[in-house]
Amino acid sequence: MDLNQVYRNTVLSVANNKTVQDIVKQRAWSVAKRFVAGEERQTAIAAVKDMEKVGVHGILDLLGEFVDTEAKANEFADEIIRLLDAAEGQGFPIYVAIKLSSVGQKITLANGENLGMVNARRILKRAKELNAFVALDMEDHPLVDLTLEQFRTLVGEFGNQTVGTVLQAYLYRTEQDRASLDDLKPNLRIVKGAYLEPESVAYPNKRDVDLQYRRLVYQHLKAGNYCCVATHDESIIEDVKRFVQMNKIPYSQFEFQMLYGIRRDLQVQLAKEGYTVRAYIPYGSDWYAYFSRRIAERPANVMFVLRGMLRG
């Protein structure tokens, strides 16, 4: 296991400690606002409009995961629909990310239906009416099979212009998963992966993750599918630029995606070069898990947080 992976695993392990959670939640909101666009949908919509001024689109994401009651799952889905309605007519393409676990993926109703699918259908119905796009975020490895199965069903019902999903390069299985979806011509976001996964299912070394990341993007593009290249790694971005030029892949077949609050300069630069660029703009009160994964991505983020907490 390389040092990058050791660092990430250590940070995620510490972040899951209850005492650490309590301290960070009390002291770090002023710092978390670098990565999270407030707690209300209006602040998130305002953040999208701000990014649009510099040619970067937004991905709206209400934070929250692993919802465990029917009432909470339904309320979460209701809020996503309210978000779609609030974004209507605001002058930007509507793009929303959801976690199926947030809308009831782990809950089976009395009639045998999966609540996550019931709520996903409600959300996607409204999204299709608004010509909006919904990306189904991928979570840790025990949920991959179910998420891909549900994604396949939803593409069949709503089409690949309305719904897409995410694949994680650090999982050994992902190359096979990507190929298995080719018949759907899916819109896929390719990410490296941000959860704490065991070596039995995920590459422990950054070099291997980076190699698989490139393979996935290249294979998806060569298959003629739409690819969302979600990375801040400039070496990968430059390699993707060269690949699309060499293979005459149109700019309309892919986009670059990055995170709100990280490398805005690079986002703006890519947009000026004519590429489609989106920033992932999360909001909501349930920000701690997302914030922890951002800290785990690079040591500089820890120092940024500690300085902010000390000032607070």
From TrEMBL:
InterPro entries per UniProt: FAD-linked_oxidoreductase-like (IPR029041), PRODH_bac_arc (IPR008219), Proline_DH_dom (IPR002872), Proline_oxidase (IPR015659)
Coiled coil residues, start to end: none
Binding-site residues for substrate, renumbered to this chain: K99, R293, R294
Cofactor: FAD
Record-annotated Proline dehydrogenase domain positions: 45-305
Gene Ontology BP terms: L-proline catabolic process to L-glutamate
Domain of life: Bacteria
Chain sites annotated for binding FAD: M138, Q168, K192, G193, A194, K206, T231, H232
Molecular functions per Gene Ontology: nucleotide binding; proline dehydrogenase activity
Reactions catalysed according to its record: L-proline + a quinone = (S)-1-pyrroline-5-carboxylate + a quinol + H(+)
Cofactor binding summary note: Binds 1 FAD per subunit.
Alphabetic keyword roster: FAD, Flavoprotein, Nucleotide-binding, Oxidoreductase, Proline metabolism
Enzyme Commission (EC) number: 1.5.5.2
One Pfam family hit: Pro_dh
SUPFAM superfamilies listed in its UniProt record: FAD-linked oxidoreductase (SSF51730)
Pathway: Amino-acid degradation; L-proline degradation into L-glutamate; L-glutamate from L-proline: step 1/2
Protein name: proline dehydrogenase
Species this chain originates from: Deinococcus cellulosilyticus (strain DSM 18568 / NBRC 106333 / KACC 11606 / 5516J-15)
Lineage, highest ranks first: Bacteria, Thermotogati, Deinococcota, Deinococci, Deinococcales
